[in-house]
Structures are given as C-alpha cells and as structure tokens.
Amino acid sequence: MSKSHIKYSSLIHFESFNDTFSPSRIFAQIIILQSFYYITAVAMFCFLASLSGYPFTFDWIFSWEPITFQNALGLTLTILWIIDSFVCIIFMTIIVGRSKLAWDFALTIHAINFCVCWIYSGKLPSSMLWWGLQIVSSVILVSLGTWTSRWRELRDTFFDGLTDTELGNNDNNEGETIAMKDMSRQNNINEEEHNK
C-alpha cells in the first residue's frame, strides 16, 4: 500500500462523521446551512420581485448596498432578511440540533455573508443599516437558535417514551383506556400499612 494512499484514506473517516464535533461534519453543516440561508433568501426575493414588478437581481442577496431606508425596496429587503433569519432557525435546529453549537453556526453564517458581500460588491460594507441588520439577524439566530436547539435536546432526553395519560396513548395499552386510581383511597391504605 502506497504512502499517499494511507495519507488520503486517513483524511476520510465516515465513522467520525457521526461525531457531533467532527470537523468534517461541522464543515458539511456549515455548507448546508449557508446554502439554505441563501436559497431561502432567493426564494423570498424572487417572490417579492414577481409581486412588485421589480427585476430580480443578485445584488439584493450578495451586496450590502440595496439595504437602505431611503426607498421601499431597501426597507422591504431589510424586513425579508429578518424573516430569513427566523426561517434559518428552523434549519439550524434540524441540521445542527445542538444548543452548544448555535452561537458558532449563527455567527459563522453572518461572517461568511460578510465575506461574500465584501467580495461581490468589491468594497467593505459601510452602511450602518447593513451592520445593524447583521447584528439583529445574529441576535435572532443565536438566541432563538439556542432556545429551539435546547428544547429539541431536552425533549429527546427527558420526554422520550413518556405517554399522554389523558388521551390514553401508551405503547403498552395500544388504544386501551387507562383506569384512574382513587388517590385518596390509595393514600389511606398506605397510611394504614405504615401505622401497623
């Protein structure tokens, strides 16, 4: 077996992809999450263009210059970017699913978006509104992304296998009703046994 084969085969470990903190898994999650971030924006902005009669342009997505309060389009794009952040929370919860990583992924999305906007427009973003939008969007993703991921983690941990006794749903009874116990009578029996 050649030395280069050993080197390259050691770089690709599919078993490590199952590890939450595996670099290959984190990189894949970043790519997928960033893609959904932009795909959602494209879908919303195309819908806006079809409704309003504006010609769609990728400047709306990859440039910081259209974000302004000076016209209706700039205000609408600002609102759509905030809505995109709320939609991205769903993707973050599903794709990442770890509350510890929500900060990292939320800030990574915006760091990559900053680099993309800088490269696409050819100049460093100088609009205070654009920076404010990035801060608001980051806060939304960090706070709600952490909360939804934590809720998902705790739901899986603490509530898995529990049944809804009011509805009689239970894996063991399969549709049978659950008999209610007379708790006061049960307490009296327990007290009598304890007093003996």
Written overview of the protein:
- It is a multi-pass membrane protein.
- Pfam families: SYS1.
- By secondary structure, the protein is mainly α.
- The protein has one domain.
- It has seven helices and no strands.
The secondary structure category is mainly alpha
Number of helical segments with 4 or more residues: 7
Radius of gyration: 26 Å
List the domain count as a whole number. 1
* Uncertain spans: 4-16
Largest sheet: none
Q: Give me the strand/helix succession.
A: HHHHHHH
Tell me, briefly, the overall form. Answer: elongated
Strand content: under 5%
User: Approximately how much helix is present in the residues?
Assistant: 55-70%
Gap between N and C termini: 79 Å
Query: On the 0-100 scale, what is the average pLDDT?
Result: 79
Q: How many E strands?
A: 0
Membrane topology: Multi-pass membrane protein
Transmembrane segments: 26-52, 72-94, 101-122, 128-147
Family: Belongs to the SYS1 family.
Protein name: Protein SYS1
What tags apply to this protein structure?
196 residues, mainly alpha, 7 helices, 68% helix, 0% strand, elongated, Integral_membrane_SYS1-rel, protein transport, golgi apparatus, transmembrane, transport
Chain-wise SSE layout:
Elements: H1 3-11, H2 23-52, H3 59-62, H4 72-95, H5 99-121, H6 128-158, H7 183-195
Helix pairs in contact: 2-4, 2-5, 4-6, 5-6
Concise synopsis of the structure shown:
With 196 residues, this protein is an all-alpha fold. The protein has one domain (17-160).
